[in-house]
From TrEMBL:
<feature type="transmembrane region" description="Helical">
    <location>
        <begin position="245"/>
        <end position="263"/>
    </location>
</feature>
<keyword id="KW-0472">Membrane</keyword>
<feature type="transmembrane region" description="Helical">
    <location>
        <begin position="181"/>
        <end position="203"/>
    </location>
</feature>
<keyword id="KW-1133">Transmembrane helix</keyword>
<dbReference type="GO" id="GO:0019825">
    <property type="term" value="F:oxygen binding"/>
</dbReference>
<dbReference type="InterPro" id="IPR044398">
    <property type="entry name" value="Globin-sensor_dom"/>
</dbReference>
<protein>
    <recommendedName>
        <fullName>Globin-sensor domain-containing protein</fullName>
    </recommendedName>
</protein>
<keyword id="KW-0812">Transmembrane</keyword>
<dbReference type="Pfam" id="PF06146">
    <property type="entry name" value="PsiE"/>
</dbReference>
<dbReference type="InterPro" id="IPR009050">
    <property type="entry name" value="Globin-like_sf"/>
</dbReference>
<dbReference type="GO" id="GO:0020037">
    <property type="term" value="F:heme binding"/>
</dbReference>
<dbReference type="GO" id="GO:0005886">
    <property type="term" value="C:plasma membrane"/>
</dbReference>
<feature type="transmembrane region" description="Helical">
    <location>
        <begin position="215"/>
        <end position="233"/>
    </location>
</feature>
<feature type="domain" description="Globin-sensor">
    <location>
        <begin position="3"/>
        <end position="154"/>
    </location>
</feature>
<dbReference type="InterPro" id="IPR012292">
    <property type="entry name" value="Globin/Proto"/>
</dbReference>
<dbReference type="Pfam" id="PF11563">
    <property type="entry name" value="Protoglobin"/>
</dbReference>
<dbReference type="InterPro" id="IPR020948">
    <property type="entry name" value="P_starv_induced_PsiE-like"/>
</dbReference>
Length: 300
């Protein structure tokens, strides 16, 4: 059995559903212009879309191709030619470096747009459910086919490596995992010592002549460091679960430690120069933290 037939079988996509989609094509063709306008409004929200659609000529070409793909989604004939067409689209996505996140997100819009219009225009409950089921399957099949290009690209890169390169790559991945777990354990140790620092500052406040004002500021500074350490542990847990490395959390911990010093030094008239230097460093860290967050929001 050919691969595309096997794919349809895995999704239990029937000839009846193909005919249902074909009957939907006139309605969806009439909505094609509306679809492409809303689709572009949606993808421009990604933030980095302009990186791939650099000028009006490319945009016009892309709009034409997306519109044709949308109409062809309801062609009713899903043979080798159709899947070859989809696979070529996937290869283009890989070649230009389009993240799979954008593809998956765009398909969420496609699915929502179609189902919303089916529900708006369909009066027969049974027929509407059949149409939605058929649409769900063909959208998933399209997404599966397009993203398979990414999987095959990653696999081909791995298979092209020599035995030595594969061994080194596997070893580096294991070493990276060990380092990450070591870092998580170290952060837990830091949090433990931050708790000890907080308890020690409480002791100084109540059982020494440190002074209430300085004692309270010292305790607040310790709490700030503990809070930053806990936040850093949370971010490291996210990193271990596959999310990005949160450099912003490390910056935040450094800021917390410096702010603690400011709180303590603020009561001393002899620490003016040190306070000025620490203040400049805190401002620099705050700007860095802001830049990191801005970059993260744009990339999303």
């Amino acid at each position: 059995m050919q691969q595309h037939e096997s794919l349809k079988e895995h999704y239990k996509f029937t000839q009846e559903e193909a005919l249902i989609l074909q009957t939907l094509q006139p309605k969806m063709s009439a909505l094609a212009d509306k679809f492409i306008d809303e689709f572009y409004d949606y993808i421009w929200g990604f933030g980095s879309t302009a990186k791939f659609l650099k000028n009006q000529k490319i945009i016009d070409y892309h709009r034409t191709k997306i519109k044709a793909w949308f109409i062809n989604l309801f062609c009713g004939k899903y043979d080798l030619h159709y899947f070859t067409y989809l696979y070529k689209i996937g290869e283009i996505h890989v070649r230009i470096g389009l993240p799979t996140h954008y593809v998956n997100s765009a398909f969420t819009f496609v699915r929502t747009f179609i189902i919303k219009n089916i529900e708006k225009n369909s009066k027969d409950e049974i027929q509407r459910l059949k149409e939605i089921e058929a649409v769900e399957k063909i959208v998933d099949i399209n997404l599966d086919t397009l993203t398979s290009s990414y999987r095959e690209e990653e696999l081909s890169k791995f298979l092209s490596l020599s035995k030595f390169e594969k061994t080194v790559l596997s070893g580096l991945k294991k070493f990276n995992s060990y380092i990450n777990f070591f870092l998580a354990g170290s952060l837990a140790l830091v949090a433990f010592f931050a708790i000890g620092l907080f308890v020690y500052d409480i002791y100084l406040l109540f059982f020494t002549d440190i002074g209430i004002e300085k004692g309270i500021l010292t305790v607040l500074g310790s709490l700030l460091v503990l809070w930053a350490a806990i936040e850093l542990i949370h971010e490291e847990i996210n990193h271990l679960q596959g999310k990005g490395f949160a450099i912003g959390a490390f910056i935040m911990l450094a800021m917390a430690a410096l702010i603690r010093k400011v709180l303590i030094y603020s009561l001393s008239s002899e620490k003016g120069n040190e306070l000025l230097v620490i203040g400049v460093v805190i401002v620099a860290l705050a700007v860095s933290y802001w830049l990191v967050n801005v970059k993260n929001r744009v990339s999303i």
